[in-house]
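Q: Predict the assembly, please.
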Amino acid sequence: MSIWEYANPKKFMQTSAWALPWAVALTVALLVTGLVWGFFFTPDDYKQGSTVKIIYLHVPSAMMAINAWAMMLVASMIWIVRRHHVSALAAKAAAPVGLTFTLIALVTGALWGQPMWGTWWAWDPRLTSFLILCLFYLGYIALWSAIENPDTAADLTSILCLVGSVFALLSRYAVNFWNQGLHQGASLSLDKEENVADVFWLPLLVCIAGFILLFITMVLMRTRTEIRQRRLQALLARERVA
Amino acid sequence: MPELGKYAGAVIGSYVLAALLIAALVGLSLWQAARVKRALAEVEARQGEK
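A: Predicted assembly structure:
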């Protein structure tokens, strides 16, 4: 059995129909567990007070905003190289999900930044690259909507995805590239000094797992819709010709 | 409810806004899914009749 079997829309629909209920159940369980644990059962931070509870939303959403773009890049490259329609549709389906995560990261970051830094926004390397990533998401979604021919749209959005990957990468490593700005380094690290304290770490891991599954669930659901939409367009085109 | 002190607005605001954004994404996706599924079923039924 090959992974390319799932590039067949029929096979993808069958497999995703089986996987989706499990993914939904696991997503809800992990998100509820992680967020309730983090919000109600973890102490305040000695420096940041109760604002540390924002970490359970901010870090997973920021992480997934970047990873969603990475997934879109892989799917776009598969489209460019192998011309599998499901991969192009999966990239299209992932964009609004990635945009939502980016908005959550920006909004929660501003709400966290105001009491801690004294400002809602700063033209800090990480914040700025994240804002540009958000604009790339909007541009990507707009480009898909603007082009009528789906194959041309898939080609052009794949190129845009490739270009936007620079900013996705910068969003992740801006703090390391430019050792300046307000934003701290990684919250999760193998370096004990840098990593968040153990009491916050476990619920944060559960929240990250929940956000990963939320992304998978939403992409599966939205890709199924895109496949149905493509079939609908094909049938309507056949009707017009007949 | 944990004691959030002077940062209650920032913490609760973050959770409320994140919940609203996720709810909007899920709601919109479910609505689109239902609309496309219904339209496809109608066209398939129509073409099946011919």
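The CA atoms of residues 66 and 112 of chain A lie 20 Å apart. The mean pLDDT of chain A is 91.
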